[in-house]
Write a structure and sequence with these properties.
- The structure is a single chain.
- The chain is α/β, with parallel strands linked by helices.
- It is 22% helix and 33% strand.
- The chain has two domains: 18-165 and 221-261, 3-Layer(aba) Sandwich (Rossmann fold), CATH 3.40.50; 172-217, N-terminal domain of TfIIb, CATH 2.20.25.570.
- It has seven helices and eleven strands.
- The strands form two sheets. It has a seven-stranded mixed beta sheet with strand order 3-2-1-4-5-11-10. Strands 6-7-8-9 form a four-stranded antiparallel beta sheet, with no helix packed on it.
- A hairpin with a 2-residue loop joins strand 8 (198-207) and strand 9 (210-219).
- Mean pLDDT is 90; it is low at 1-15 and 50-57.
Length: 264
């Protein structure tokens, strides 16, 4: 499903996914996407129309801010950044980093961003499959409706996600090797349910210290399904690319960066 062998962790069976991933997150996911290109793209979108030189900052909300992989570079570009994450462990990881004090952080469910992060926002950002961490369609729809309420008129919601391959015709299970080193083996076990469009997984992390399970779950959607949900929430697709540097999107693309706008 996901072209990366270590898909972005989602909510495990329990309240805090960070307890399963915080100790390895920055190591495993540091290079998953082009951080500089992402931050540059968002900063360009966030510039005030009255400030063509781009020297003024506008407000950006990141859903699933995690350890600040994107949020901290956005702060460095002069933006006012607000972050939402459900994991206290991940937020603690972020707060310990230089520059984190400049980010307004909220420990909350990103399915209802409007309840904790009053707008308006020039940009709402959700990167690297994080939107799929909302693991049922109703929560995804609620998130988009909340985003529509807090976007400034003409503001942008930017979603980065993989393009699902054709689903199997029945529940499919798989076991693969995700990482191998002299002192660690990480196996990934998944169960793909095409009826619910969910993938439930375990990273089985094996070291000399023992075995640790790192569970996750995603509910994926096709670009067309995302467009339909966004339209229901009052957001219109403005453009879609195959990467953060404006790469053309076509039928062979396995990743999309889609921008939705709230009409003025």
């Amino acid at each position: 499903m996901d072209p990366d062998p270590l898909p972005h962790p989602s909510r495990p069976i329990g309240p805090d996914y960070g307890t399963s991933f915080a100790d390895v997150y920055d190591d495993w996911y540091a290079e998953i996407t082009d951080v500089a290109a992402t931050a540059d793209h968002v900063a360009e979108l966030a510039r005030s129309p009255a400030d063509p030189a781009g020297t003024g900052a506008r407000r950006v909300l990141e859903l699933g801010v995690g350890s600040g992989r994107i949020a901290l570079p956005l702060v460095e570009r002069g933006l006012h950044v607000v972050g939402i994450d459900s994991s206290p462990s991940m937020l603690d990881l972020l707060r310990a980093k230089p520059g984190a004090a400049a980010i307004e952080l909220h420990e909350a469910d990103m399915a209802a961003p409007d309840l904790v992060a009053p707008g308006p926002f020039a940009v709402v950002l959700v990167t690297f499959n994080t939107f799929f961490n909302l693991d049922d369609a109703a929560r995804q729809q609620r998130c988009l409706e909340g985003v529509a309420r807090i976007l400034a008129p003409g503001g942008s919601l930017v979603v980065e996600a993989f393009v699902p391959a054709d689903p199997p015709d029945r529940v499919e299970r798989d076991l693969s090797t995700a990482r191998v080193s002299l002192d660690r083996l990480v196996l990934t076990a998944t169960e793909h349910d095409p009826a619910s469009q969910t993938v439930t997984g375990q990273h089985v992390d094996i070291t000399d210290a023992g075995i640790r399970l790192r569970p996750w779950r995603i509910r994926y959607a096709t670009p067309a399904q995302l467009d339909e949900m966004a339209a229901t929430a009052g957001l219109r697709l403005a453009d879609r690319h195959a990467g953060w540097s404006g790469e053309p999107f076509d039928d062979d693309s396995n990743l999309h960066v889609s921008r939705y706008v709230r009409e003025p």
